[in-house]
Amino acid sequence: MDIEFDERLGILRCVSRGSTSLADIEAFGRKATSLQARARARLGSCLILVDASETPVHTKEAAAHFSEMAATRFKAGDRTAILIASALAKLQSQRMTTKDATAYFTSEAEALAWLLESGKVA
Q1: Does 122 reside within a domain?
Q2: What is the pTM of this model?
Q3: Strand partners, 73
Q4: What DSSP letter does each residue of 84-96 carry, written as one string?
Q5: Residue 96: which domain range?
Q6: CATH number (domain holding residue 55)
């Protein structure tokens, strides 16, 4: 699991592959916090593209930890586009995220278009 700031687009790009341990989630959270602050300083909000297309369903503990992070780290104006392949993973992700500012896609181009389009929430 990794996260980087895309300077050209002004978005955070997160890639998750395979299973995720609680230690991985903790490390991800620390890095995400500083990058979210950087994005907000530049844009006033945080736009995140998550590629979870090769991520299996998380353990109950990992899902709970992600839910806690989502509940405390997102602010008004933030948006998250998630690339996801499995219907079951999408259902789990919907329980872990802030619903009013998150949308799900199978195409990166569509996800980026939604993220960068101001004012639209799916």
Answers
A1: no
A2: 0.79
A3: none
A4: ---HHHHHHHHHH
A5: 2-116
A6: 3.30.750.24
